[in-house]
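Quick start: read one record
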Amino acid sequence: MTREQIISLQEGLPGPPDLIETHISWVLLGEQRVYKIRKPIRYAFLDFSTRERRKADCEKELALNRRTSPDIYLRVLPIREHNGALSLVDGPGQVIDHAVEMVRLDNRRQMDVLLQGNEVSVADMQHLARHLARFHQVADRVDMAPSAHGLWLDFADVLKVEALTSEILGVGAAAELRQCVSMAKRLLDDLEPRILARHAQGFTRDVHGDLHTRNIFLMPEPVLFDCLEFNDHLRQIDLLNEIAFLGMDLESMGRSDLWTAFLQEYQQKLPVILEPNDKVLLKFYCGYRANVRYKVGALRVMQDRNCLDVNALENSFQHMRGYFEEV
């Protein structure tokens, strides 16, 4: 589908719903329902280039997210075109794409929103840690071990936005980006024995994969949604890699205190830091998650220059860089 078709679909729905655009999808937010539609794109880490691939990914998203939010993810719906009009209802017309239908939750309970209002407590973080530890304890173990080289390749993928980094943030920033990639390589080479040992200890699990504060609702029981379904490799990871996204996100908001509270409670319920090198590895994973955030922001700018916020991009870059000044 094109953005023009998405707008046409939006205008034909009750409300009409609000439209949110990310680097890989369009999301229509109605009063009671949410519809997520994939963009027809291909990156190194995903392939939504055909309708069949997008439908398969919708079905996978539904199945995987029902592990943590079964009452939220409802079904996969066909998008039909009939007499020039687009709809999400059963009936006549050619199927041109698919959408995942979800229940809309109260956005005021979204964790990033609560954090902005200083409404997240240590007790909330402890509750979240216990909830997440229970999910991780029953998550499937993964047979294939992560490798230091594979982790470095994931990290080095950020060099695909090197040219934009140079253009927007300057040649000095582009040089610093390359330096971060080099430092990550040296660090991972040193940590490789521990990475493999942790896999042998059962820490590589099929988990959420995209666990930042915008993907968490703090309800009476926390709701984790929008897991990373489109790439098994990026979701089947060490538990330290999983929780690092939350830690990086909290630290980027200046809430290291909440990250510490979460980590202490999580460690008590599910010990994942067993020796000093595990702390170093967690710091790397936080830096890697900051790398992902910067890359996603840069890719979004490459798609649409109208969304460019130089200060936000600069802050994201410097946050990533800061982790590699510490390790």
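Residues 148 and 192 are 5 Å apart (CA to CA).
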